[in-house]
Amino acid sequence: MDEDYDAIILGTGLKECVLSGMLSVAGKKVLHMDRQKYYGGAGASLTPLSDLFKKFNKPEPSDDKFGKGRDWNVDMIPKLLMSSGQLVKLLIHSGVTRYLEFKSVEGSYVFKKGGNIHKIPASEKEALASSLMGIFEKRRFAKFVTFVNNFDEEDPKTFSGLDPKTTIMAEVFHKFGLDHNTADFVGHAMALYINDDYQNENFVPTVKRIALYCDSLSRYGKSPYIYPLYGLGELPQGFARLSAIYGGTYMLDKPIEEIVMENDVVVGVKSEGETARCKMVIGDPSYFPNRVQKVAQVVRAICLLNHTIPKIPEATSLQIIIPQNQVGRKSDIYVLMVSKTHNVAEKGWYIALVATTVETNNPEAELKPGLDLLGPITEKFISIDDQEAPLDSGEDNQIFITKSFDATTHFETTCDDILDTYRRATGEEFDFSKVQDDLQAAQE
Fold first, then answer.
1. What's the rounded Cα separation, in Å, for the pair 375 and 309?
2. Residue 16 belongs to a domain with what CATH number?
3. What's the rounded Cα separation, in Å, for the pair 20 and 145?
4. For 424, how many CA atoms within 13 A lie in the half-sphere containing its CB?
5. CA geometry: angle at 231 spanning 227 and 235, to 5°?
6. Which domain covers residue 406, as residue numbers?
7. Which single residue of 108, 173, 287, 301 could bond 283 by disulfide (Cβ 3.0 to 4.6 Å)?
8. Number of independent structural domains in the chain
9. Residue 120: closest CA among 157, 93, 86, 82
């Protein structure tokens, strides 16, 4: 520990492990520490199944109705990967995919007022066949999807009379005559925004997000999402291996005694009486209680089911987004289900997650619209966690803190935070192409 490092990273959550890999690839000397004995942080995978019962202080099942406990890998914060999204690009470019195997998720759905669940259409053909919209709205939406898939910021012929510099998204919806319900599922279930602020902002980022959804869907056909076999637990370890290839050092089960400062700038981290010196520290909010603020709370219900979701019985894995406006809320509700298909549960069993941002004094009751979709629940585990964010950018004191995971069941906001933290720490945008080139060079 008497060495000097470019960066010390605290916590082995996914964000921190990705950043460790990114910095190592960029030529930084990295030391990665965690007070826990395992990878994953708050988003760890639990196996055997008895560990899930222990974590929530529930009596372990005495019979064998859940099958072999070792056949279960229950993610505490399950999220799906967009097949053409930023995290998958990072996995591919960095070579981490060699350690992982993914399988597509069977369905991507949206909830509509009244309790119906609809597959999200992402092509002109799907739009015209969808029961989500009336016949005239279908045609308007089909034209909108065609515009999205043809839009090219460099080609004015694809602008459809819109100005990419001044037009806001609400004006685009108006131009194509899309009603409020259609705008709702487009913004929340395709562009994956967590509120409606985007409607009053420039339309180009939103169109790109919708195009990403459509492109991701075209890869597998059933949904735009994929999930790793055996759960998310392998993701942090994959990036840890990447960091190690480039000389990164990992230390688990290391108590963090002090963040050492000189003239209000970090100079090291003290553990077990020794201080490792560094130029910057990156870590999750739990390591910096006085440097973060609570911005929200997230309530999650992990549910064990012995059946698929009644309204979509054919799907053994899926995501359902319940847009805020459809249930009179300020925050969306997210439903995710995985199963033996992804080697995370015993055959005949399903793991469902329902999550949302807390708005009342009765968080569990806020999950009701999502829980009601699941049918009979065999076991339910409720957690309520503070969502924390750094008080400052970290550029003055060189302490760069990631945000807690939000309620979403996809990794897009997670990637936004990873790339923002990288930019704050290094002063430059991350170059995806450089990873692949550098990795090939390192292995030659």
1. 7
2. 3.50.50.60
3. 38
4. 23
5. 85
6. 4-42+233-293+390-443
7. 287
8. 3
9. 82
